[in-house]
Amino acid sequence: MTTDDATPTPNEQGNQGRIQGLGATRLEMAVEALIFASDEPVPAAQLAKAYSDVTGEALPAPDDIAGIVESINGLYERTGRSFRIAQWGGGYRFATVPDVAPFVEVLVDTSSRKRLSRTLMETLAIMAYRQPTTRSDIEFVRGVDCDYAIRKLMEYGLVDVMGRSEGLGRPLLYGTTDRFLDLFGLASIGNLPNLREIEAILDDPAFQKEKAKLLMTAGLQQHADPGAETWNDADGEEE
User: Which residues, including other chains, have CB under 8 Å from residue 66's CB and lie 6 or more apart?
Assistant: First the structure.
């Protein structure tokens, strides 16, 4: 076997993929650019397909994409950047680090935020932890009719029909959507806090302090702008 016939080592393959003068591989730059250009979380499979379609190379494996994202985030951290690539909502997207949240909140018009009412939050939480679940299961937990809440959550794109139960009457099964994961910053349903973690959060003095701050801010905003939009049950609910 001659030198020309030798199969490139992984390092050699990486060097071949580097863009001259930029120090990053084509895959690194492609992944970063695709996530940057998208308004929604981009799944690893979609990133791999876009890269393969343009370069003609084999599809990168999901682990390759995860490794690239980790490498890019390492660079951001070493250089003190204010953002990272986060994995949630079924894909990857850019997000600012928590330390700069106060600055972002000043820039973003918080009065235009939509908030879920307590009724919708309760119904959504039951669906998230018990999915796929039926309407009667949700109503058993809440003790009230949930038709309105389920309909509103579906209108907001936070839940959807996932199929039918094999039980009597084959009722519809409901579950959360990728929009729910995106909105709550979750990579998957498996990232929901368990009961022990929730208890730890509730016992954390920092949480109580933050909660008091949020309640005070919400109260001030309500007083200043009583017409602020809310995802609520103002047009009729069971309670």
Answer: 44
